[in-house]
Specification:
The structure holds two protein chains of two kinds. Chain A contains three helices and two strands, in the order H-H-E-E-H. A two-stranded antiparallel ribbon of chain A has the order 1-2. In chain A, helix 1 packs antiparallel against helix 3. Chain A has one domain. Chain A is mainly α. By secondary structure, chain B is mostly helical. Chain B folds into two domains: 336 residues, Sodium/glucose cotransporter (Up-down Bundle); 77 residues, no CATH class. In chain B, 71% of the residues lie in helices and 1% in strands. The radius of gyration of chain B is 24 Å and the shape is globular. The chains are: A mainly alpha, B mainly alpha.
Chain lengths: 84, 567
């Protein structure tokens, strides 16, 4: 297993982390805290959107993020042949 | 049959189940005792992690906290779930590949230093003991309310059960009982929630139903001098910092991290975190709904009504002093309002109506426990809630116990003080340590210090400012060395520790908060401080030895993870 190959694998892993953690940050700290008042101008059913993200919505997105990561990494592990 | 009888039956059955599982899953090796042999299926592991994570606080107190805090309660909802993303992406897979048994193990080897290991052990012990104190107290309270036994008897009963399945089965016994406990607790939480949701809104899905009554609740709140429910009263920066401290702290708690050492493969560790969050989210997305329903009920149906015609549940909880009514103006009506509001006009109007102060004091812990009674559900459901609360407390207590016992037998004895110890003796030492820890935890549960909740905030701040940075930097940077890590961990600890001790235990005034950040949120700054100092000191001192750099490179690749043992 050569070094450059593993370096490429790691770089790809880091890029996935960057994207997923950015979404993590935006959906919780962004929509639910820092920009909550602005988000409240929009509605989801009878919920104001900022409040909804803070109390429910961020959690749903967290779950999706983890499973997205699992899917991406399983594929990456296979592509780079670092599977167990 | 009375609630008490039903409680004896249902709680008794659940305890019999846990004991049965413990007998089936006797640990026979240190690998089984510490990490369940490494062979737990990821979905079951996720369920066990969820039960381990959701303590008495999540089950009993959280919905009540949210109902009193409104929007501000979001710090707990996001704070106690967001950390799982950090665990799945930044920690779990790499620690699983590392393949050893404990968090201090990782710190000790990554930073090639017994000092670092000992610092980690001390932090782990402190965090776990403080947390366990809260659980044993919670067990005592549930027992005392539902079985009408003294709190101390309840604590001792709880201790005996945990003792049995933790000492016998170690992590294996704990994991599979946690799976059972998850089933009990989630059923116990959801049944009353669905019923109340349906009763109050006609919609049985709590997560959807509670939106419709928010406007009404905001109105009811402001009429009684409280801030609007959806508004909250903390500053944006404080909410940000508390949420971050809780998220990062979650990902730094040893008893949570160790749950990812128990699955067969690295990719199982990743998906197990996903499953854990799904199981946790079922409760966590329901909790704000319960908060809204119960608060609306309180403001609409209790406040302003005659005391003599108050529903039975109010009088029931008065018996345990968790609701207190004091008719200050002698009119026989319950005045429940915010007498501490800064709104002078409101207070004038209240005085004009003949109100002489708030008359109803409610312990927020009862919001969940009283839920089934409020919804008029039958006695067996109430007993089920008791069993659920106990399941939540005992499952968390067991997980903490495992960390404490392995810190003593593995990290201190085997890895530091007495490396020649045989496997059999280490296993025996682990069991003895678990037994001693349970007794100590029980004593703390019987004589709790006043400041248990503050200490748990301390535990999170510590995990956020010492463990989390040390582990994450250790995985993602090869250059971080032992000098950096140790100074970083100690700085984070000292900064966060003194801030919390100063403001929460020594009474420093709130006006002196740094940037308005409360002690619950200071762990975030502590974490940043730790990262800064760790990086600075690392670059000023020699790089880690090549063997450690190779270890770091190896844990980044799933291939070659140590095999699980047969189940």
């Amino acid at each position: 297993m050569n070094d450059k190959h593993l370096k490429k694998y790691w770089k790809k892993n880091l890029s996935y982390l960057l994207i997923l953690l950015s979404i993590w940050f935006v959906v919780s700290y962004g929509f639910g805290i820092l920009f909550r008042k602005q988000m409240d101008h929009f509605s989801l059913g009878s919920f104001r959107l900022g409040f909804w993200f803070a109390q429910n919505g961020a959690i749903y997105v967290f779950i999706i993020l983890i499973f997205a990561y699992v899917y991406l990494m399983n594929k990456l592990d296979k592509d780079f042949d670092v599977n167990e | 049959m009375s609630v008490q009888t039903w409680t004896f039956i249902i709680v008794g059955l659940s305890f019999a189940l846990y004991i049965g599982i413990a007998l089936w899953s006797r640990a026979t090796s240190t690998k089984e005792f510490y990490v369940a042999g490494g062979g737990v299926h990821p979905v079951l592991n996720g369920m066990a992690t969820a039960a381990d994570w959701m303590s008495a606080a999540s089950f009993i107190s959280m919905a009540g906290l949210i109902s009193f805090m409104g929007y501000d309660g979001s710090v707990y909802l996001m704070g106690w779930t967001g950390g799982y993303v950090l665990l799945a992406l930044l920690l779990a897979p790499y620690l699983r590949k590392f393949g050893k048994f404990t968090v201090p193990d990782f710190i000790g080897e990554r930073y090639y230093s017994q000092t670092a290991r000992i610092v980690a052990v001390i932090c782990a012990l402190f965090v776990s003991f403080t947390y366990i104190a809260g659980q044993m107290r919670g067990v005592g309270i549930v027992f005392s309310r539902f079985l009408e036994v003294p709190i101390n008897t309840g604590v001792i009963l709880g201790m005996c059960i945990v003792f049995f399945y933790a000492v016998l089965g170690g992590m294996k016994g704990i994991t599979y009982t946690q799976v059972a406990q998850y089933c009990v607790l989630i059923f116990a939480y959801m049944v009353p929630a669905i019923f109340i949701s349906f009763q109050m809104t006609g919609n049985p899905v709590p997560q959807v139903a509670f939106g419709g009554i928010l406007d009404k609740l905001d109105g009811l709140s402001t009429e009684l001098g409280f801030t609007a429910y959806t508004a909250g009263s903390k500053t944006v920066l404080d909410v940000f910092c508390i949420t971050a401290a809780l998220m990062v702290g979650t990902a730094g708690l040893p008893h949570v991290i160790v749950r990812f050492f128990t699955v067969p493969k690295v990719k199982d560790a990743r998906i197990s975190a996903g499953w854990a969050l799904i199981f946790i989210a079922i409760l966590y997305t329901t909790a704000p709904a319960i908060g809204v329903f119960v608060r609306t009920n309180l403001l609409e149906n209790i406040s302003g009504k005659a005391y003599s015609s108050a529903p039975a549940w109010v009088h029931n909880w008065e018996k345990s002093k968790l609701i207190q009514f004091n008719d200050k103006n002698g009119d026989g009506l319950i005045q429940y309002y915010n007498e501490q509001t800064a709104d002078a006009a409101f207070l004038q109007a209240a005085a004009a109506k003949g109100w002489k102060g708030n008359e109803l004091v409610i312990d927020q812990d009862i919001m969940v426990l009283a839920n089934p009674e409020i919804a008029g559900l039958p006695a067996w459901v109430i007993a089920l809630v008791a069993a659920g609360g106990l399941a939540a407390a005992l499952s968390t207590a067991a997980g903490l116990l495992l960390v404490i016992s392995s810190a003593v037998s593995h990290d201190l004895l085997k890895k530091a003080i007495y490396p020649q110890i045989s496997e059999k003796s280490e296993l025996r030492a682990a069991r003895i340590a678990a037994a001693v820890a349970i007794v100590l935890a029980g004593i703390i549960g019987i004589y709790p210090p006043d400041f248990v909740a503050a200490i748990v905030a301390f535990a999170f701040g510590l995990a956020a400012s010492s463990f989390f940075p040390a582990i994450v930097l250790g995985i993602f940077s090869v250059r971080i060395n032992k000098e950096g890590a140790i100074t970083g961990m100690l700085s984070g600890l000292l900064f966060t520790g003194s801030y919390i001790i100063g403001f929460k235990f020594m009474g420093w005034p709130k006006e002196n908060y740094l940037l308005g950040i409360s002690p619950e949120g200071i762990g975030t700054l502590g974490m940043l401080l730790n990262m800064g100092i760790t990086t600075l000191v690392s670059y000023l001192t020699p790089a880690p030895p090549v063997s450690v750099q190779q270890m770091v490179a190896s844990i980044r690749i799933p291939k070659g993870a140590s095999a699980a043992s047969d189940h």
